[in-house]
Amino acid sequence: ITGSGGNIDDTIEYIDSMDDAILGNAVTGGRISKMYPRDELINYKRRIDANTEQQREHADIMAALQRKIERYRQRFEEIEGRLTVHDWNDSGDFTDMKLKEEWLLSPRFKMQDIGDVEFASQLEDERRRTDDLALQLQQERFQNDQLQGEIQRLRQQFEINIRDKERVYQTRERNLTRYLSDEQRKMMELWSELQRVRKQCSEYREQTERDLENQRNEFIKVIRHVSGLVRGLNVESGTHTLLSDLSSESGVDITQDTILIEAVKRFHDSQQQQQQQQAVPVIGPELINELRLARSEDAGLHDELMRKYEESAKRIIELESRDDENHNKLIALESDLKRTRDRLAESQVFIVFVVVKHELLFF
Asked: In this structure, what are the phi and psi dihedrals at residue 280, rounded to the nearest 5 degrees?
């Protein structure tokens, strides 16, 4: 029993050290994941503490039994020292004989030979009580072994659950990292596409401005050329130009044909006046040919001017349609970029939530 008591103390110290190690690992985050639920950790700790407390109670009971047995042994020794067996010999003398422990416990020992019947009954009661305590000690040892097996099973189950939770946490973290990298890559692609569209729109705008400037210069050149031709056809007797005379009239549209017709009319009137004064024709074929050539040149310039005007109008319409298309595409890209930024913000908030949850579980 003494040896058993020493083993019990060693077992309790070993279990306490193992519990402290497990709980230490749970607190410091050694092999145990931070993702493990706090309620399960507390539940395991309570069960381990309860088992440890039961083992300590069993150890206290066994220590009390051991102390009680030691007291019984001392009492037996004191009783053996006081007891004497008187044996009648041939000479009639009594010899003091000290009762041995095995003789007292032997079935050959007759209780009626002892003078103190009450002491004999008390000794028998103590023997039965000792047997009961020994049986109880054996039962406590068996129960202690069962508790140790239960603790070992709980420890293994705890480690398995910890490994599973750690694996799930690592998988979730990898998936989250992959998702964030994909979202960031998509956002960068959208940003590069947006920059490219902006650059293309800027180039189209600059090209449109250059084309409009060129068309305006062409219009100015044609107008100057027509004005020069008209000034050359003005009649010397007039004090105003054709453009000024026509512009003074109300309701008259000034065109190249109108200017040429008015110039021919004035020239014809001037020639008639000269014929009436001199009574000789002065209109020569050179002047008529010159007027015809001027009219044909004006018609060609007018056709060329109209053609360029139509081309410029088509070009402007095409550029405006492209600008509208690029503007719509730009709006779509900006909306995609906004959605991507919102998703990135949500992912960042989720990451912060996960980190805070881990810290709360850790502390």
From this structure: -135, 140
